[in-house]
Amino acid sequence: MSQQGATLQSYNNELVKCIESLRRKREEVHTQILAEEEEKLRVQTDLHILTERLARLTDSLNKKIATRNEYDKTIAETEDAFVKIVESSQSLLQVLKRDSVSLDEDASAAR
To answer: What rounded mean pLDDT belongs to the chain?
Structure first.
């Protein structure tokens, strides 16, 4: 029976060692879980901040693009109007030159 008691004690000691080993491994995993939960919280906070920043940037870009488009439209309209003014000035100059030549001819004929 003494042999059986020794064997039982050996099994008991081995069982205690296994349980302690499992508890250490569990504690390691628990520590990793806590660290990852903290990191997850930081990432969620950063994500929230970045999402808000992205929304502000998108809004700002949309407003600036609209403003730029208005500038483009105004520039195009102004350039078109300027071309028309130049064309009108050329036409007016041609009419003035023609009338001036005509008046000079009439004045020369009247002498």
So the answer is: 94
